[in-house]
What does this fold into?
Amino acid sequence: MEDLRKFYKPPFNYDAECQCVLGSDNHLACEIRGWGELLSRGAKEPLQVQREMGELIAGLLNEHFSGNRQRLKDRLAELEPLEDFASHIPIHGPYLERLKKIQAEAERRRRRIDELEERDV
It folds into this structure.
């Protein structure tokens, strides 16, 4: 894996106008999409949901780039389960299956962080 610092410079911030996460050099790190999807699934404030997700991603990127694995692990542990985060959106059918896959992947990543920390100790 290439060194991400070659491409992205912290601190990261969410820009609500472009609905994206930018590094300190204003290079795009990621776009937050899905406004129409959120609206069609019943979100009353889809832009707020996108803003919360963008700020969450920016914060986690900042923790990652700080090199403090314990703080990143703590931040991940503080996160509400995705079901709670999206509780105002009715989830059913293929979306529910996708949510389960996302949650399983999040748990796999948490375990991987634990493994890396144990190896570094």
